[in-house]
Specification:
5-stranded antiparallel β-sheet, about 70 residues, about 10% helix
């Protein structure tokens, strides 16, 4: 993943407070540096017109997929 990438959350990605984001398309805005500890890496995303900068990188990686130019 890199800034500018479009991704889509899986339809069954969340069951709690983020459930409304299931199936949502979003853009990677920023990634924290990779310090070799995956649980300490964060991502900022633009989703539903809102910048959200409190996502763990591994959550984005495991619960979404890349969206190609065709959609």
């Amino acid at each position: 993943m890199k800034p500018g990438d479009l991704r889509r959350f899986h339809d069954d990605a969340f069951v709690a407070k983020e459930k409304h984001l299931n199936g949502a398309v979003f853009m990677i805005v920023e990634l924290s540096p990779d310090n070799g500890v995956p649980s300490e890496r964060y991502a900022a995303i633009l989703v539903d017109g809102t910048l959200d900068d409190d996502w763990f990188y591994y959550v984005i990686e495991n619960h979404s997929e890349a969206v190609d130019e065709a959609g």
